[in-house]
Predict the 3D structure of the following.
Amino acid sequence: MTVAVPMPHNRRPARCPFRPDAGLERLRDDPDLSRVTTSNPQLGPFDAVLVTRFDEVRQVLADARYEAGFAFDGSGPRTVMNQPGILLNYDGPEHTHYRRMLSGAFTVKRVRALAPAVRRVVDERLDALEQAGPGADLIETFAGPVPLLVICELLGIPAEDREGVQRRSAIGTDVGNTLETQLENFAAMAAYMGDLIRRQRAQPGDDILGDLIRRHGADLSDDELVGMGNSILVAGHETVSSMIGLSTLALLEDPGQLAAVRDDESVTTGAVEELLRLLSVAPPLVRQASTDLELGGRPVKAGERVLLSTLAAHHGVGLVAGEPGRLDVRRRPVAHLAFGYGAHQCIGQQLARLELQIALPALLRRLPALRLAAGFDAVEYREEALVYGVARLPVAW
Ligand code: HEM
């Protein structure tokens, strides 16, 4: 039987953003692999095998015979995803070739060196939040700008260009927009990044784009650099922004957990891992079987698409002790899949962790009486967005 799964399939119950909805839970508990019909902005509507159990999601991600780059058409029209240089568009040696060029920029050591810049951005945005006063929207004033400004520093995007970058990035990740709007917006994103790359080629800056151009500029076309630059911009912005917003909401809903993150530095690392697991903000991951395969003794045919729900996997029985839908910042961290797994595991995960580990405690310490300006029932979610999140979060203190 094929079940229609709304986009994004990782939908949560109304007014409860912290667990999968009942339909997804039911599909996970089904002993058969469910065949679903869904859609995403890159592929449009498509049929897929839905994988919801933790071990099986990890197994697929670890197996190179499930390919990621199947939809990429190098000679087709350019869109947000159909662009050379985007790591998720490649498999095997081609993927390794591009990934190696970028991974030097994201080593633990290089990311640690970014901590003072992240702290400065967080402090500046907290000043802005205080100046805006009670009633300010946490997403607009803090959760959105922090990761955007960090990525802009990383890519060497000048201050005066950042508003335009934010606007285009928001359009690019809003699946509610028409294809025409998306194509128009992508053309503007590509034009901006192309211009930045030409400036950086003339005078490489002290940032990852400048570094990439210095070390690999001769081997990479402008087209490939546009893909790399824009994919980092998009992948590293909405995800972290959404994590800051939803994490704040989850903590405000549970004052005991909030107090632990605010007052006890020793819980910070574990709290961020727990929030990454619980909230699972990334969209479902998609792969395509390159040959006939088996998953848990059940067949997956060559050419079949596979849709991996990390949200459902993270909320299944047995992954964590106790209730998986309850936030427990002192829980022993588990090896979750919030950043994926295997060859395509998130290249920016150390940076994402750094931002969350700095931003969340800093927010709660600067505004110890932080609360929602309206009740929990008034919170609006970005249900149609590729990356799940809170649309607006008016706060008071
Ligand atoms: C909390 C924040 C983040 C989450 C939850 C997240 C999640 C993910 C996931 C699940 C994947 C794997 C996709 C797949 O296998 O299909 C991924 C890949 C990727 N992420 Fe992230 N990400 C985050 C932050 C970032 C940041 C900050 C950057 C860059 C600055 C970034 C850049 C990338 C890139 C370039 C890839 C593709 C890697 C490859 O294909 O080899 N992400 N991310």
User: Anything to note?
Assistant: The chain has a mean pLDDT of 91. Residues 2-396 form a domain with the Cytochrome p450 fold (CATH 1.10.630.10).
